[in-house]
């Protein structure tokens, strides 16, 4: 299968590229870096349409995101959906649990977005645009992506413990972390199955940011006692508290096991 991975130089995207290539797929990876062979600014409808028309992929996995910018997160995926539909490519959009407020006890795939943050609103806008443009697309919501020591979350824990950064980890902010390798494998399965609609691909275990930080520290052999706990509810920091993605329905269709954080961050795990 010819697969285009948008955001192919990012943390998740690069793992998808590596696994897809290892499985015998023809992979075209794009990047917003201008020096990249396949430089792509997804906010440009013309640039997106031109490259996708040129490459003619059978599947497009959009793993690109910007937490600090509306256009690439909300508008860019719509441009990708238009171009994918025009060339008949199956689109898989990676979305986020940030589309939810955390007011519900859990969120199955049937849940409607009710974001509290600009990033969550941008992700929700992208979902809406894609569903309107291409009903055959798959929208895969996930949670915190960690796993090999190089994720944003793991680097942040390193920086907190070393004193490079100052900050706290919230004990009342819960998410369902997923290993980057598990998520990448799941996305490729979804591509092979040509799934459509809303899917959830996160770990089965809800853990707090603080507990996750402690697990990461132990995994990396760092002093977890240097991490400072706090509660978001007592601070002016905006954002949802407990967001539990229910991924059981999607998991039942996958060979790949979406492991919980305790399992994949245990020192005896790979």
Account of the protein in words:
By secondary structure, the chain is an alpha/beta fold. The chain has a single domain (2-265), classed as Rossmann fold. The protein contains nine helices and twelve strands. The strands form four sheets. The protein has a six-stranded parallel beta sheet with strand order 2-1-3-4-5-10, sandwiched between helices. Strands 6-9 form a two-stranded parallel ribbon. Strands 7-12 form a two-stranded parallel ribbon. Strand 1, helix 1 (11-22) and strand 2 form a beta-alpha-beta unit. Helix 2 (45-55) packs parallel to helix 3 (70-87) and helix 5 (152-162) packs across helix 7. The chain is globular.
User: How many distinct helices?
Assistant: 9
Mean pLDDT: 94
Q: State the helicity in percent bands.
A: 25-40%
Radius of gyration: 18 Å
Which residues sit in consecutive blocks of at least 5 with pLDDT less than 50? Answer: none
Which structural class fits the helix and strand makeup?
Answer: alpha/beta
The largest pleated sheet is described as:
6 strands, parallel
- The CATH topology comes to Rossmann fold
The percentage of residues in β strands lies in: 15-25%
Shape: globular
Report how far apart the termini are: 29 Å
When the domains are counted, the total is 1
Count all strands and give the number. Answer: 12
Report strand order across the widest sheet: 2-1-3-4-5-10
What is the annotated CATH architecture? 3-Layer(aba) Sandwich
């Amino acid at each position: 299968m010819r697969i285009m991975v948008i955001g192919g130089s990012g943390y998740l995207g690069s793992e998808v590229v590596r696994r897809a290539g290892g499985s015998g797929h023809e992979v075209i990876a794009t990047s917003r870096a201008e020096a990249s062979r396949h430089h792509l600014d997804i906010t440009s409808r013309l640039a997106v349409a031109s490259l996708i028309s040129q490459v003619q992929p059978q599947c497009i996995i959009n793993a690109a995101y910007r937490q600090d910018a509306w256009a690439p997160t909300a508008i860019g995926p719509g441009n990708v959906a238009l171009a994918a539909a025009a060339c008949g490519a199956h689109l898989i959009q990676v979305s986020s649990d940030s589309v939810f407020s955390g007011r519900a006890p859990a969120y199955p795939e049937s849940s409607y977005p009710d974001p509290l943050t600009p990033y969550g609103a941008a992700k929700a806008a992208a979902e809406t645009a894609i569903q309107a443009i291409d009903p055959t697309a798959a929208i895969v919501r996930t949670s915190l992506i960690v796993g090999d020591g190089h994720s944003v979350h793991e680097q942040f824990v390193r920086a907190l413990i070393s004193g490079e950064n100052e900050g706290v980890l919230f004990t009342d902010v819960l998410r369902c972390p997923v290993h980057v390798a598990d998520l990448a494998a799941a996305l490729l399965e979804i591509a092979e199955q040509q799934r459509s609609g809303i899917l959830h691909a996160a770990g089965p275990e809800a853990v707090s940011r603080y507990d996750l930080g402690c697990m990461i520290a132990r995994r990396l052999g760092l002093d977890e006692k240097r991490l400072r706990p706090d509660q978001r509810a007592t601070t002016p920091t905006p954002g949802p508290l407990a967001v539990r993605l229910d991924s059981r329905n999607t998991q039942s269709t996958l060979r790949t096991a979406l492991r919980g954080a305790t399992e994949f961050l245990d020192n005896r795990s790979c």
